[in-house]
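Review this today:
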Amino acid sequence: MTSTQDQQVVSCYGPNTIGGVINYKTKDPNEGATFATRIGSHEYIENTLEAGTRSSAGDGIVGLVYTQAKSDGFQNKAFDMQDLMIKGGMALGEKQWLGIKLTHYENNANISYRGMFKNAYEARATFNPAPDDWFLTDRNSLDINHEWEMNPQTRINTVFYLTEMRRDYWRYALNSPTTTLQDGLKVWNFSDSLDGNNRSFERTGIDTRLTMRHHSMGIDNEVEMGMRWMQETMNDQKITATRTNPRSGTLSTDVNQSAASLALFAQNRFDLNEQLSITPGIRAEYYEQVTDDLRSNKDGRASNTEWMPGVGATWQVTTQAQIYGGVYRAFSPPYNSTSIVSGQDLNLGAERSLNMEIGVRGQQRKWSYEVTAFRMDFENQVIRANSNGGDPSNGGKTLHQGIEVALAFAVSEAFRIEGNTTYVPDAKFVENRYSSTGALIAKNGNRVTYSPEWVNNVQLVYQQAALKTALSVQHISAQMTDTLNTIAINENTSGFFTGRIDGYTTADLTSSYQFHPQLNMTAAIKNLGNKHYIASLRQGIYAGPARSYELGLQYKF
C-alpha cells in the first residue's frame, strides 16, 4: 500500500496472498557509466556495466544494466549467466509519466535435483552428484508503467506486464541398481537415457489503481481501489533422448496449462486523529484453471471466487513508539503443475488462512526496534512433493505462530550492532491426515516441514571514513523434512531422502574501501568458519556451500 504514513498492508495484490507481498523495485538509470568486476573462488568472474543519460530538461531518462557471470561452481556445478535490463521514461506534460522496462536473462547451469549420499557428504566430497544434468533457462519481459497525478489529492498508477520464460531440464535416468561406488563413495548409477523436462511460460497482465485523499466525515482519509487481470499459460513437455543425441528425441508428454484471474480491491485509511489510523479493506479474486493433455485429449477445469476482508491499524503512542496490527483472510490456489501430476488430478484444495499480527516499533536515542507477534491459522496447507517422498497432498489444518524481533544499537559513531530473530514455537499440524489408501500422512502435533523454530541474524558493522566492514552471523535451527517427522536420514535409493536436518550457524565477513569518489574496492569471505552443513534434502543430500572468497572493483566514469 502506498501511503504518506507507515501503515499495515491489508489487501495484497496476489493471487497468492498468504505470505504477504514483496515489491521489487529495479534500479533507476543514473547519468554516466559504472563498471564493476568481481572474482572469487571456483573460478568465479562477474562483470557489470551500468550506463544512463537524462535529457537536459530532466523530463526523459534512459539507461541499462548488463551483468555477465560464470563459474566452475561449488561441487563443480558450473554456470554461465547473462542479465540485461534496459529502462527508460519520459514526462507526458506536467502531470504524467510513462516508463518502459525490457529485460533479458539466460543461464546455463550444470545442476540437478540429485544430491549426495551420506558417506559422500561426510567425506566432504566436491564432485557434482549429477555431472551430465543441465538446467537451461531464459526469460524476457516487458513492463509499461503509467503514472498520472490528476490533482494533488488524486493519482492513478497503471502497469502492463508481459513475460515469457523457457526452462529446459535435461536429466539422466538411473540404471538398476540405482547406485554404485566411486572411490569407495556411494554415487548414483546413471544410464545412457535421459529426459528433457521442458517447460515454457507466458504471463500477461494489467494492474491499475486509484489513490485519493479526501475529507469525508470530517477526518482525513486515503482510499485506494483498483483491479488486476492476469492470464498465464504453460506448456509442459517431456522428451526422451539418449546420451549420443542428448537434446532431442521422442515427445512423451505434452500438456498445456492455463490460469486466468481477475481481482478487485479497495481499502480506506481513516486518520481518526494525529496518532490513530484504521484501514479496513476487501479483495475479491476470481480465478479459473484449465489443463489440456494434448496426447490423451483429456482436460480439466476448475474455478473459484474468493472474498478476503481485512483491517489494519496504527497508533503513534509517542514520538518514539508506534503500535500496529492487522487481521485478514488470505488464500493461495494450487498450482496447475502441482495439482495435476502425470495427467492425474490430485484434487488439491486451495490454501486458506486467517492471519493476525500485532507489534510495536520505534527508536530511542541509540536504539531502534521492532517486535511483532503473528499467527497464521490454515484451513488447508498443501504438502509439497519432497516433503513426503511422493506426490503433493492436502495437509489439512496447520497452525503457525511466533514472534519476530529486530534491534539495532549504535555503540558509537563508527560501530553499530543490528540483528533480527524469528521464533516460531508452533508450526504444526492440528489434525491427523490420511492418504486415499488410509496411510497416515501427517500426525496431529507434528512440525510442518522446513519450518525451523529459530532463525537468527546478527551483524556487527564498523564504518570509519572510507572503510566499511561487517561481520554477519546467521543461525537456522533444526528442520523436519517429512510430515511424519522422521529423525534419521533415510537414503531412499529410488527417490526421495527424508530425515531431520540439524541446525547450523555460518558467518560472512565483508569489507569495502572508497579510495576516491570514482573507485571502490570490495572483498568478502563467505562461510568464514567453513561450516559443513546440510541445507536441504530431496533426491540426496544438498550440502551448503563451503568457504569462498570474493574480490571486487567498481569504477565510476
Notes: The longest strand covers residues 185-214. The CA atoms of residues 306 and 412 lie 52 Å apart. Confidence is low (pLDDT under 50) at residues 1-15, 340-344.
